[in-house]
Amino acid sequence: MTAKIVVEGGAPLEGEVAISGAKNAVLPILCATLLADGPMTLRNVPHLHDVHTTARLLAELGARVGDGGPGVVTVDPTSVHSQVAPYELVKTMRASVLVLGPLLAKYGHAEVSLPGGCAIGSRPVDLHIRGLQSLGAEISVENGYIKARAPRLRGARHVFDFASVGATENVLMASVLAEGRTLLENAAMEPEIVDLAECLIAMGARIEGHGTGRIVVEGVPALRAAEHTVVADRIETGTFLVAAAMTGGRVTATHARPDTMDAVIDKLKEAGAELDCDGDRITLDMRGRRPRAVDITTAPHPGFPTDMQAQFMALNCIAEGVGVINETIFENRFMHVNELLRLGADIRVDGHTAVVRGVPKLSGAPVMATDLRASASLILAGLVASGETTIDRIYHLDRGYENIEGKLSALGARIRRIR
Ligand code: UD1
Q1: DSSP per residue over 205-271, as a string?
Q2: pLDDT tens-place string over residues 87-114
Q3: Which of 114, 135, 160, 288 has the most crowded Cβ, counting Cβ within 10 A?
Q4: DSSP letter assigned to residue 308
């Protein structure tokens, strides 16, 4: 039997919650360690299933991955002896495709299984492949594997058709060891890309413009060992702030990075929350009030993140008024809707748009998690539903949230994990 989470709704959240390092930053950074000529030390690494899977993948390639104490992971890539990322590991986590760029740049060849991952729509890797081809790689797809070869990559100008996060990361990691200058245009601007670039710079890479749509890289012959502290998880932060807003509570997220989450903070204010940012602390106060419904359109950063869409849908479910949610990034990212309906929500979906009419009360029921952020939205809904909500298939949750039930119960939520 798989683990489940049981939530008993009704308690307003109060207190402080320490935010972990960002899943979406640490995964590419772990892959980037392959580029170093010595042992890397990463700090603020969250304890997540996806991190564990990436560590297994690095170990499979021959890297020595070590535990340097709480939140510290060391990776010595000097013992890497394989450039093949097998299907068994890649299928469980799409981000494994991010070893392609580093392996190709460092060893001149790589084979990576086509990825699986979350069932949130078809997620091809054509943009990754085209970017690497621009740098001179020869790439074929055979027997379910991407096979890439290039004795030495050459810097080039590449314009992404779409500002894909993963493609930008893969091509950026490949370009740092390419010969000459690479210009990446229409690059993704997510804070996690900035964090990856900063780690690469600490390793000796020459990168400018990260965090904008135009990244300029001067290739270097080799990269050295370095230390890096992973940026705070803006999605985890946003999830706790939405939980506070929905329950009419007051929560301070500490170790956070408010400057990476303007769109989410603005929407929380629009929903009627009082927000106060002070250094790495964000306090949300919604005591005594019901949220107002907000309209949302997901977009690449600095737009509203698709990874916060499901949580804001949960908020709209119990808000005053009607909120329209437009999902523009992924094709099939409304799988939480049917589960929210089971809790008494009023949601109508038409293509990429969901119209959510707030109801005064949700009522607890057994529901099923379908992907990572969908699971979070079900917990949020459970926190305000009357009675018990049991969420099945929470392994999705463990891929991306560190100890979510521990952190929520420290804020006063009635939540427990059962087997
Ligand atoms: C990353 C995040 C994920 C987030 C997403 C969008 C990680 C590990 N995951 O995923 O949490 O939801 O960004 O912010 O960082 N696409 C193509 N061809 C490609 C690549 C992407 O068509 O080669 C499409 C995808 O199918 C999707 C859209 O582009 O519809 C966005 O994908 P992308 O930005 O690449 O997301 P990921 O890097 O997979």
Answers
A1: -EEE-BTBSEEEEE--S-B---EEEPPB-HHHHHHHHHHHHHHT-EEEEES--GGG-HHHHHHHHHT
A2: 988 888 889 999 999 999 999 999 999 8
A3: 135
A4: G
Residue with tokens 């950026």: 172
Percent of the chain at pLDDT > 70 equals 98
3-state class of 42 per DSSP? strand
Q: Which residue, judged by its Cα, is nearest atom 38 of ligand 1?
A: 166
Kind plus residue range of the DSSP H or E element containing 285 = strand 281-285
The answer to whether residue 83 scores a pLDDT higher than 70 is yes
Residue 322's DSSP bridge partners are: 357
199 is catalytic: no
**Distance from C-alpha of 37 to C-alpha of 40, rounded to nearest angstrom:** 9
Q: Report pLDDT digits (tens) over 187-243.
A: 999 999 999 999 999 999 999 999 999 999 999 999 999 999 999 999 999 999 999
In single-letter form, the type of residue at position 3 comes to A
CA atoms within 13 A on the CB side of 109: 7
